[in-house]
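Predict the 3D structure for this chain.
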Amino acid sequence: MKPVDYRVYLVLDPDLCGGLAGMLSVTQAALAGGVGVVQLRAPQWKKRQWVEAGLALLPLCRAANVPLIINDHVDVALAVGADGVHVGQQDLPPAWVRQLMGPDAIVGLSVSNASELAALEDTAIDYLGVGPVFATTSKPDAAPALGLPALAQLMPGSGVPLVAIGGIGLDNAADVVACGVDGLAVISAICAAAHPEDATRKLVSLFGVNA
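Done. Predicted structure below.
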């Protein structure tokens, strides 16, 4: 697989997409628009639904040479042959995820403040999801919003790509990019868009033609 393009990172929401069929449709459109990573996140689903969705999404992502990431569940990722797993601070440690998934898997970790970033000692991490940048309704248990100044202060010295997440839409994405992030993780900006492909293209364009 080609090097990962984190610029626009789609986090699928089954409710916003309207179930599995909608998730597949949104994913196809986003892939056509240039999305670089697709993550399956469905906290209310049972594991069998996760697996069914993962198996349906994987061929679309493979055809576009774009990685499919599973949120939290290493067993689901292994079952469907996904490319990686994203975990939070209370989930399996990234080193354990790496051991289970193998050396070629993509392992992401969420951080929500400078203290969590400073405490990182895990070389198993390929990228960090930083946020929420703004208040978000997509994750009821999310940490307090960072805001743009705090986000900009987190940029130097991470050593891995930083992908901003949380309340990011077309109206504020340019301000987030200006903080120096490597990517934007979005949910409603694509999943709830009238034209997901166009929305994806607009987000990708914020990084410039030579990004």
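The chain has a mean pLDDT of 92.
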